[in-house]
């Protein structure tokens, strides 16, 4: 009986080891210690900037504040139109810029961002969640340097393309001392083809205090619906008592949570 018990125990141990080995083999295509799923990079001391990372979708506040953000620019056929409209209404916004486009189209934004804020939207809009931490860092660092050179202001915010967060994205962002900014409301141009006013009314109705609103100054033609109605959107939100701020200004007005929730 002792021999049988020992054999059974040994079989359980071997079975557990076999399952563990099988799981490891099944996951070999995802090198978790360094790949896109991992927010760590091995066994040595890690460079993690300030040591913590804030990820924001929405800012809790009782004030009627909204942050308008634009992704994917700058591009000649889009960005000047957006900047002209924002200038006309004296509205600040946060632009999440693609570094390669900043490098190529620097003249579109140079000297035009005084009231605005810039963030990092990667070097060439790849899905960073599919890359390991070192590759994400290289991508964001390259974009960071291009944005800082052209605008004179190093970005402190990042928005990964498509809003995709992988472990490598988190690790690279903390190394660069970024805040990651996503959004709580986005334009829905496809629901309002050729109806800029209808689209504007929809967005105005959906904004609540602390909204981070996603728009684009690049992309398919249907996105022009939002841009053609941008003035009506601004006036509609102002009529509801809203003030436009940059993302960083909005973060600075965050209401502290009450004790116990």
From TrEMBL:
Annotated PROSITE patterns: NODB (PS51677)
Residue ranges annotated for the NodB homology domain, each copy included: 64-245
A GO term, aspect molecular function: hydrolase activity, acting on carbon-nitrogen (but not peptide) bonds
A Pfam family matched in the record: Polysacc_deac_1
Top-level division of the source organism's lineage: Bacteria
Transmembrane region(s): none
GO biological process: carbohydrate metabolic process
Name this polypeptide is given: Peptidoglycan/xylan/chitin deacetylase, PgdA/CDA1 family
Record organism: Micromonospora rifamycinica
